């Protein structure tokens, strides 16, 4: 990062009017005025790393630096880097603040995390931020507000390796109960977080909702699930390279001539 105030692209998957992205812009403006907000025009939670390839992407410019996009979080990152932000690329992409957790395997579904992943693919440092909570309770946005600025400013000084992005989760508690900030590994919950629920409409035609019900378990010392239980902010460095190197020797033997 240069010594000048950074150029920041803010995206999310909860939509451009979501409370988390409004809060995030307020936090980022504490240390830079070069802020651009490019986000979906409506909620796109669960969009994952999808992009729009079979229909046009419509953009509505709200003012000089705010754009509502009829597309996915990945679309928003691509548009910001390649077209909508003039003169030079952003120094960092900050995605969120998501309304809900992006822990463990959540990142494979998360539009919030995937926008940060797209930043890594574009060679730009990127951070995904999420506020953990459990419905019907409301998110403790004060916790994200209390810690997000410190987290972002420190990560701006980090050594960013190619293909790296960072996933941040703020715990489900008031800020005064937070016990610290911890660097964590990615956890993995037991199977069964998502289940299709069958309904029948008024014309007797079946349809489905996907029910989200995270099973207990998967937490272990040092992972993001345990940090959430311990009321700690988790900082999880992730990478694009998903190769399972421990499995390679066995596969080498299996396919050896």
TrEMBL record:
One of its GO terms (molecular function) is 3'-nucleotidase activity. The keyword Metal-binding applies. It comes from the Bacteria. Pfam families: SurE. Its cofactor is a divalent metal cation. Its EC number is 3.1.3.5. Belongs to the SurE nucleotidase family. NCBIfam families: PRK00346.1-4 (NF001490), surE (TIGR00087). Nucleotidase that shows phosphatase activity on nucleoside 5'-monophosphates. This is 5'-nucleotidase SurE. It comes from Novosphingobium anseongense. The gene is surE.
């Amino acid at each position: 990062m240069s010594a000048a105030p950074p150029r920041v692209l803010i995206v999310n998957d909860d939509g451009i009017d979501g409370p988390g992205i409004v809060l995030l812009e307020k936090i980022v403006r504490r240390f830079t005025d070069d802020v651009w907000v490019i986000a979906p025009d409506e909620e796109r939670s669960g969009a994952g790393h999808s992009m729009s390839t079979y229909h046009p992407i419509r953009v509505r410019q709200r003012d000089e630096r705010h754009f509502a996009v009829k597309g996915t979080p990945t679309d928003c990152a691509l548009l910001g880097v390649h077209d909508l932000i003039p003169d030079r690329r952003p120094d960092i992409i900050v995605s969120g603040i998501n309304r809900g957790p992006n822990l463990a395997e959540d990142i494979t579904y998360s539009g919030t995390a995937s926008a940060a992943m797209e930043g890594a693919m574009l060679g730009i440092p990127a951070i995904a931020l999420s506020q953990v909570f459990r419905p019907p309770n409301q998110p403790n946005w004060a916790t994200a507000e209390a810690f997000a600025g410190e987290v972002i400013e420190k990560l701006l000084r980090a050594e960013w390796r190619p293909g790296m992005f960072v996933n941040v989760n703020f715990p489900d508690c008031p800020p005064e109960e937070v016990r610290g900030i911890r660097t964590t590994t990615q956890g993995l919950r037991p199977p069964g977080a998502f289940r299709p629920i069958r309904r029948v409409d008024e014309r007797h035609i079946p349809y489905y909702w996907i029910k989200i019900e995270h099973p207990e378990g998967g937490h272990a010392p040092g992972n993001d699930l345990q940090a959430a239980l311990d009321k700690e902010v988790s900082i999880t460095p992730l990478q694009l390279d998903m190769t399972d190197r421990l499995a390679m020797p066995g596969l080498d033997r299996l396919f050896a001539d």
